[in-house]
Structure formats: C-alpha cells, structure tokens
Specification:
213 residues, 8-stranded mixed β-sheet, globular, disordered N terminus
C-alpha cells in the first residue's frame, strides 16, 4: 500500500509527458504550416496593395471617344498612371520606363497594357493624348474625361493633384501623385509602383503577375 501512491504519481507523470509531447508536435506542425503559408505569398519589389478597397475601376474614354473600363483589358496586366502631357519630368520618365519594361518582358509584353490617365483634361485634349501617349509605345492608351470625371477617378484612386500657377497668366504645372497602379489579369488591384523604381525591379514584378495569370 505504501507503494501505490508513488506508482500513480509515476503514471500521472508519464501521461503528462505524453500530453506535452503531443502538444509540442501540434505546435510544431502549426508553425510549419504558417511558415509554408508565408513562403507561398508572392514577394514584390513594389508596394503590395492586394485587396485594397480603393482603385477598383474607372470609367473614362480613350482618344477615339470609346468608353473604357478595366473589363476591356481583362486577361492582361494593366499598368495605370495618372499624369499630364506638359509634365516636365516625372510623367515622361515613368512612361519611358514602362516602355522599357514592356520590351524587357519579351513576348509576354504583349499582355501588358499601359494606360495614361490625364489629370489635365482642359489642355490634354483627346487628339493631343493620341499623339503624345503612343510616342512611348504604340500599344499605350491615353484616357480622358471631363474635369468632374477626372476628379472623381482621382479620388477613387486616392490620387492627389493640384494646379501650381506659372510665371505667365494662364500657365501652370500640376503637383500630383507619382506612381503606377498595377492590376493582374483578373482585374484585381495588386501593386503600387513608386516613382523611380528601377526597370529590372518593375519587370520582375510584372513578370510574376503575368506568370500567375
């Protein structure tokens, strides 16, 4: 009788050890699963805004007067940039970089659609956009809207823009958000590429989206 209590204690100790070992195994499996989930998430050079509640779509017109929205470009990766034709540096640099990206993608570049949305509809008429935008690449499309439509679209994309008076009456430049929104082939917003992102980094990101689509 004096030995019964220690035996029960040893049994309880063994059961506790088995329970701790089982719990440790479950924890290890859960940690490995979480790690695998993290590893499977795409890694981008640009800002990943997948699932954002803004920048969902637009309703504007192309330079031929046809209504355009994201559904028109389904199946392609869409790179959408807000700018204006008289922009001295940011806009032409961004468009030239995107043209380089398209070339670097090789045959896959046929599935990249670059869209240029004017923030200056008063001066950037459809004919002017039609001559300006394709200079960077003949596949690039200029999009236009009246001032109210442009303001609404910019607000939907959280794009800031503001006129800055120039030296002469009636002249002005625009301060505006400098970056490119990227949609995957299913039309979902995925990335925001900040101005100045190197072309190889942009190419790698867009190639990844094209491969996944």
């Amino acid at each position: 009788m004096t030995l019964a209590a220690p035996r029960r204690s040893r049994l309880r100790g063994a059961a506790a050890a088995r329970a701790l070992a089982a719990a440790a195994a479950v924890f290890t499996l859960a940690a490995l699963a979480a790690l695998a989930g993290c590893e499977s998430k795409p890694s981008f050079n640009a800002v990943d805004i997948t699932g954002a509640s803004y920048a969902q779509d637009f309703k504007l017109t192309d330079t031929g007067g046809a209504p355009r929205s994201l559904t028109d470009y389904r199946g392609k990766v869409v790179a959408l940039f807000f700018g204006y034709t008289q922009c001295p540096d940011v806009c032409p640099t961004t468009m030239a970089d995107l043209a380089q990206v398209k070339t670097a993608l090789g045959p896959a570049g046929d599935r990249l659609q670059v869209l240029f949305v004017t923030l200056d509809p008063e001066r950037d008429t459809p004919p002017l956009l039609a001559s300006y935008v394709p200079n960077f690449d003949k596949s690039f499309v200029g999009l236009w809207g009246n001032p109210d439509q442009i303001a609404r679209t910019a607000k939907d994309f959280k794009v800031f823009y503001q006129k800055v008076p120039g030296e002469s009456p009636g002249s002005y430049t625009l301060d505006h958000t400098a970056g490119t929104f990227v949609f995957d082939p299913a039309g979902r917003i995925r990335l925001f590429i900040k101005y100045g992102q190197p072309v190889p980094a942009m190419t790698a990101d867009l190639r990844q989206l094209l491969a996944a689509g």
